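Hello,

Our lab assistant flagged a job as stuck in the queue for most of the afternoon. It eventually completed. Since we weren't sure the result was trustworthy after the delay, we are filing this so someone can double-check. Below is the sequence as submitted and the structure that was eventually returned. Let us know if re-running is recommended.
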Amino acid sequence: MFKTFVTKQADITHDWYVIDAAGQSLGRLASKVAAVLRGKHKPIFTPGMDTGDFVIVINAAQVTVTGNKLTEKFYYRYSGYPGGMTSISLRDQLAQHPDRVIEHAVWGMLPHNRLGRAMLKKLKVYGGADHPHAAQKPAELK
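-- returned structure --
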């Protein structure tokens, strides 16, 4: 007789990983980060629980994209007021806020509910090579 394993809160441990985004493609990097945030790399993965790990992304300003996305891809925000639509190109967004580019790409690959928002809080993105999480002793994730 086989027993079904059910993950409990006591079984879950959240590790820390650091990823260097320099020279990596935005979409491939985001899918790798989203899988680690969800916990799909663990044998105790359960879709309805937060079994994932913390991820630190460094050098976010040096991420690459293919084709003409730097000039043709835009991010839109709407304030809710008439004429309140603002847009910014990927090139300008990478120059001003490189962390938002990766967070936006990863958010599109996570569940769009309160569980996904909790997973997104475990993502820490920095434009440069320095991060303030050395005390957590993050492991290098390739």
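-- support follow-up --
The delay was a queue issue, not a problem with the job. The result is valid. The chain has five helices and six strands. The radius of gyration is 17 Å.
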